[in-house]
Amino acid sequence: xxxFICSFLLILLSAAAGAQVLKDSSxxxxxxxxxxxxxxxxxxxxxxxxxxxGSINAVGQDALDLLRxxxxxxVDKDNNISLSGxxxxxxxxxxxxLPLNGTDLGDYxxxxxxxxxxxxxxxxxxxxxxxxxxxxxxxxxxxxxNKSFGNxxxxxxxxxxxxxxxxxxxxxxxxxxxxxxWFGNYNYNNTNNDxxxxxxxxQLDTLFDQHSVIHQHxxxxxxxxxxxxxxxxxxxLGVMVDGSLSHFNIPTTxxxxxxxxxxxVTSRILEADNSSSGHRNNxxxxxxxxxxxxxxxxxSVDADYGIYRINSDQLQPNLYFDPSGSALLYxxxxxxxxxxxxxxxxxxxDYDQPFKKGQLGLGFKTSYVTSGNNxxxxxxxxxxKLPDTLNSSGFNYKExxxxxxxxxxxxxxxxxxxxxxxxxDTHAKGVSNGFLPDNAGYAIYDSGFNRHYIDFFPSGSLTYxxxxxxxxxxxxxxRIDRPAYKDLNPFEFKLDEYTFxxxxxxxxxxxxxxxxLTYVYKSTLVATLNYSHxxxxxxxxxxxxxxxxxxxxxxxxxxxxxxxxxxSYPLQWGHYSLFTNMNSYYSLYNANFGPGRTVALHVLxxxxxxxxxxxxxxDWLVQMSGFYNTPSIWQGTFKTHALGNLDxxxxxxxxxKKGTIKVxxxxxxxxxxxxxxxxxxGQYLRSTGNTESRQLKIYFTYKFGxxxxxxxxxxxxxxxDESKRVSxxxxxxxx
Length: 735
Known about the structure:
The chain is mainly beta. Helix content is 6%, strand content 64%. The chain is built from four helices and 42 strands.
């Protein structure tokens, strides 16, 4: 706690001191120069944009690290992402939703490096034009795309070290003229990171005290290439292919002391030094067409196909020793194979035209998703693998969503109105199967399901701006969060000898109604007050079974009510800039699953974020950023302790401003240690952990070729209009 407070006192004091020094010497300062650099964070009435390219301290971080340090965003110990206290946040890459959640989502985001990312958009209350999924809102990660004319490119390289060495590098090329725009990039990332986890669990009269060290080594290749063909001044065709190929190896050392609570005597020691290896591969194909004319008509069509192939092989030895740890009592050794195949097909269209002194938008989207999981467990006896048919299972899931929407915007004198309605028709089917006990063949479990439902999602906003310096916006939206595929699988997976994970076929979608009031003063101070009511909110419960064992499962809580306040303010004074953001919320959870199995938690939580930059001369930039989270609630039952960190870095441009060197230190005071506790169903849990978060990072970028975005085209329309048009291609986010 002391280090957390010191971190923010240092940020705030240095910010105040910097502002005061600049104020006192303002008479001697030259006028501020507009150099085209985007602010690190832009806050607008409908979204917050984190411009990763402009941040020194983003160097050497992956997408999950960046989200963890973004205003209002929280990432728990299982990589579940929430926004202003609301879970069910949907993550998109260049407008395409990632069909992953929890650990799978976190592992994928770790393969995306900051060098690949242009910006992160945080959209709390999307309009009807956006997909209805995502109770907490939408976070869209936009990857870099070059819009400069002529031939140009860049090379990058980075090295960072904490306990282990890590490195990455990349190449980007681009050609653009009046007829085509071709772009492509490739990045390689090699990471080694240690994570330390502790799990203290009391259940009835037994105590489990587990300590683990997880070493994760990942090699990832990410790529993107595409072509935009400008048919004429009004029409553009495009194609884009992108993806990632990654291989991981995760050895883990784990030791659990098992004790009898009444006499506090260790009865046995469990050593489970397991290893897991495999790959996570993803590929996407996008075909797009865009039409616009001088009358304000605009049509965009996107066809997408995406694949995810995830495969893991985990060897899990469980060795039980006597209390002294010297004599082996018995052992259980398992080998588990878990391949997952996900295929996604989608077609969407958006059309806009002037209508009744406003703008009318119409659109549709149809998507089809298949997910296949084939979990295989083997007993390892004398180095031989014997199939464990009773603990193996297959789960196949299919989902088809068809959606249409209408959205209308109209300005009035001092006012602006936006209203929309989205209708989504959902078909979902899941089948879980496995071997019969007598090995006679496959049997369909009774827990297979088939669902069909239609939902209406209204949204709207009213903006008042009679005074150019002040703006008020009142917004409302209704949203849905459907269960993740694996959360519906009823099969019981063994995580270790005493912990299991099981899906729930009865898990229902959760629905959120949100209303928010936003105030903007002089396009700088932005304050948003928001209230959300969540029905059937998802919660990961750690329940009990067989007296001493625990299993994880998702269930629907009765309700969750959240009131949040977000305030942000940027300060620019000469060569000094400061951005501060405060996000606070009050959350109330209520549920009753029977005697001894109730949830009644409430929390007032706050997230503080600050970043300051100082330009020194023409070539130097110094930056410091940090965040602090007060205690909060994870997944409905875990109460967390405070968490925070401070990053600092310096940047210099060289080689006639074509080269940039960035040096930074992340988590300067090494305060990224989390703690969470839960007391549910007669079981007390305390979980702790930290990663290799304090690292020295060095990063170099060199740009070559033409880097200017021209303002003219061969065709009659300006390049600025065309660049706007091209930059929207390949984005399936809206609709």
